[in-house]
Amino acid sequence: MVLEVLQATTAYFKDHNTENPRLNAEYLLAHVLARKRIELYLDFERELTETELGPLRDLVKRRGAGEPLQHLLGTVEFCGLTFLCDKRAMVPRPETEQLVQLVQSTIHNPQSTILDVGTGSGVIGLSLAAEFPDAKILAVDASNDALALAQENAAKLGLSHRVRFLRSHLLENVEKDFDLIVANLPYISTRDRDTLSPDVLHDPEIALFAGERGDELIRELIAQAPSRLRPGGMLALEVGLGQSEALLSALAEKNYRDIYSKNDYNGVTRFLFAGYG
Ligand SMILES: C[S@@+](CC[C@H](N)C(=O)[O-])C[C@H]1O[C@@H](n2cnc3c(N)ncnc32)[C@H](O)[C@@H]1O
Q: Is the shortest distance between the CB of 85 and ligand 1 below 6 Å?
């Protein structure tokens, strides 16, 4: 029955050092039964059929081997919206939801023009499109796979007419003028490759690694953004652990103003904001 399967699956995940073993068990069982997680609690005694147990065993094995939960579910919740999620783009992280919330509080003009650089599955640009119905939004990525997924997400959310997608290395194919440029670019150093958890290595390489230092792409964007920002426009960045100080200096050197940073929920200085012009 449901309760026993949850207990056995939780124990299996514990053995395999899967984070949040009970929660993972609940998500996968709810997925197989096409129920909400909370509904499992109303049906603890329900017996499971072999047609339900077969697919569950397969998913549990894959999760135990490190495949991300969101890939197995095929979706992820982000800023209250449900996005498709697969290996074509990075699994969106909770920190990035925080970036979107911080960015939202800086947008005072509802008709802002917004650029999301390195859009991945589209979460930042599409969440902002949902929140600001009159904003004009462009989302770019260097990966065709990511752009394909982002466009599927736009269609699923009924936002295709609101967000334009474009393949571009940083701002190469982008014309001006934006009120806001927001980016969660790759920021892991190639030297840290061996220290990453197996979950992370299911994300595409292009979404993770920037170069030897880790902050190369962010630095390049800091240099390019002034030419695409309107006077008084803003750049908002998510950055890696330990990168904020050097990047704050880089922003100052490039003559940005009103520069400030914010911590994520773990106390890491993770978000940088800077005005220009
Ligand atoms: C860390 S992921 C973030 C994805 C998404 N914005 C999110 O927050 O979940 C970085 C994204 O930047 C893209 N990217 C990598 N190099 C790029 C480049 N030179 N120009 C534009 N996008 C790039 C990757 O394909 C990936 O989708």
A: no
